[in-house]
Each structure stands twice: as C-alpha cells, then as structure tokens.
C-alpha cells in the first residue's frame, strides 16, 4: 500500500441545531489511518488531518454510515476519479 495514498468521499451530515444537511469531503489515508474533512460549501477545512483508529478501509463504501468523532456521516459519492476506480467495485453489502 502506497503511504501517500488517500481516498476521498463526499459525506453528508445532518446538523440538528441548524436543521441543515451539511456536505463534507472526507479524506481517508490508509497508510496511517488518519482522516481529514473539508466543508464543501464554504471551502474550508473542518477537521485537520488526525489519526482515527475506529475507521477502516472496509467501512468506506457508498451508502454506508460511518461515525467520526460522534458525527454520523453518510457516504454519498466518491470525491475523485482515483477513489472511484480503486473502490468502485465495493458497493453496499
């Protein structure tokens, strides 16, 4: 596995306080198990790259819900063509 490899997903999170559906770019780095999140609408970093042991590559497929720091994110799309090519065959089980 390439240590600089990263997978990008578009994830949605329902914000109950604002009653809004927020979209994030979820980046997962399998080399060290770290995650990073960017707010799609505001083009800002939401979560700096940080190690997160509770997320595995097997959890990342379109239609799955993943918990990252107590936020339940729904994976709705691939964030880049590389991710779609590498993980596109892994659909919802």
TrEMBL record:
Domain of life: Eukaryota
Domain DM10 residue range list: 3-91
One Gene Ontology cellular component: centrosome
PROSITE patterns: DM10
Keywords: Cell projection, Cilium, Cytoplasm, Cytoskeleton, Flagellum
Database matches in InterPro entries: DM10_dom (IPR006602), DM10_NDK7 (IPR057579)
Cellular compartments annotated: Cytoplasm, Cytoskeleton, Flagellum axoneme
Listed PANTHER family: NUCLEOSIDE DIPHOSPHATE KINASE 7 (PTHR43109)
Stated name of the protein: Nucleoside diphosphate kinase 7-like
Organism in which the protein naturally occurs: Octodon degus (Degu)
